[in-house]
């Protein structure tokens, strides 16, 4: 009578845990339910052991389920069920489908469900389990999770990473401390050469919750000759823990179709033959007192059933307490969901909740700009290369070298990523030098200035060239910098959402949770994106204004005499910048009769010869009324040559002199027409390494360009970008979002909350909560009954 009461109590406990397990699988509940997890290498006999435990065959080996998805087998011992009845739990609910009697149909369901999920997820394996409930008079009350078998190499057609994925998934399934490991290994494998024993040690180093099963034990029997060999092997000393005693199991090898009764008779017969061989076929037999309880399938089956029941009984009080807690949490979630659905018609409540949520997101954006490391930058940050790729902007325009600022490989976001882009812009700006200028351009500018008179023709011409180059080459850099910075700030919205979600979860502030309001979230995202785009547009205008100012003819940036490398603006490292020679253009004597054609746009090389004062080479051809000073090497080019070359009323003398100059092809540095100071210059081929106006203008233009660049970068742009982007995000974001979202009438405001899909999502969430509440409440009631029987 007492044994019958104990049996009924064990069965009720088992049924309660089975239902709880079904609920956990359906709703993703993480409950510390005692479970047995079967692990081992492929072909180590896990599938045959499962069939033996079930008491019938369903060709599980043919579907190779162990290589695809875990299978939770819930075996229910029911004396009234003379033929096995199997039912599969629906993939996304706690409900079970119709009864399946045919063993072939069971295998087909496992195969089809596995293939469908793997096709949907586009993976080779999946951790999502298949749950099968088997009721039978000849199976124990036992639940086992069968896992994919370990493999060394992927099968043909599978990804090469499949073995690693299986190992990782099995470790994840076996790691929870409430799970019992059932580790199978063939008897033909020595413990010292076991492939998977180390993997088990990584999960359970002391083997305290591991049951070791040596499968296919009959293959090893013929190797034993005396009692000492048998006992040493059965003890497994030196490889397993001191208190670990393996189970040695052999099962029928015949895979032919037989009845379920015959299958069970064969299992029993194999057990009997193994014991008989150890007693009679081995000299001296074996230590039966010590090892008899560990040999045979029947011994393993009884131990697994009793061990699981013991774990169920020990875990029942803690499980009951946890269920009460979960039921209370689900009830609270239901109340919040009801309030949220009711609030869809309460405009004032929605305005308040939406405003608080918007303010929270704005505050998180500000915190990320000021510096934060939550959420994890490793997951949410981006490297410089990822920013370039995802923004679609790519490299910096006009920059041929690869710009790699400090910390380029680190994943950053917020203020840190913003500063990195600023530094990257500086690197790009200092990588650009004044581009080569053709003689025609120099002549057009210089001659126009010379015609106006005055003594600053070369200086003004070189300054104009530098200003033109700066406007042409630096403007695209400024636009790119603004676009990159806008991308960095735009990325903060998703990070701010994640930060708000985590903060609410940590501090349990769920009163203002706006999940489910799809229309509102879309509107908030659009407003934030529009705000950042407007900032980028304004910043582009501001930095363009600074560029126009510094390149204005009235700007003194080109005439600051105290400029030098680092000069009045302080010393600053200029990455990717060439040597000082790259700042100026040098022109050496070509030594040709013909002027350069294809080479006019290439900066001249620097001459090492001693420079002579321009004009001395043609001293015998022209009359200079006053000798140029050595400090004014290009004075003749400034239009200071007087009109005394020709004395005739119509300038005949001058024309004749010019004609003689033209006829002499070896002297063509300068030609002065009509005594009016008009200038022309070309290439010299008379061997004199004299400095020309072209050389001086190119060199001076390069210096002016560098001066403009440094003034623009160091004095204007950096501070403008900071104040143009970051300050509005800190000070005006919440106001700007509030005006866009809430400064509207009630009807337009409610469009964000009653948009198609928003209410439906909330209703679906409530239905899921209601189902979860119902099943958990049912489990709680059942466990209270179980607890009273303990």
From TrEMBL:
Mind telling me which SUPFAM superfamilies this protein's record contains? P-loop containing nucleoside triphosphate hydrolases
Q: What Gene Ontology terms describe where this protein resides (cellular component)?
A: cell plate; membrane; microtubule
The residue ranges flagged as biased composition, category Basic and acidic residues, are 589-600
Region Disordered: start-end pairs: 376-398, 589-616
Segments forming domain Dynamin-type G: 30-317
Q: Which SMART domains match?
A: DYNc (SM00053)
Could you tell me which InterPro entries the record lists for this protein?
Dynamin, Dynamin_GTPase, Dynamin_N, G_DYNAMIN_dom, P-loop_NTPase
Q: Give the GO terms filed under biological process for this record.
A: cytokinesis by cell plate formation
One GO MF term attached to the UniProt entry: GTPase activity
Q: What is this protein called?
A: Dynamin-type G domain-containing protein
Question: What organism, scientifically named, is this protein from?
Answer: Arabis alpina (Alpine rock-cress)
Taxonomic classification: Eukaryota, Viridiplantae, Streptophyta, Embryophyta, Tracheophyta
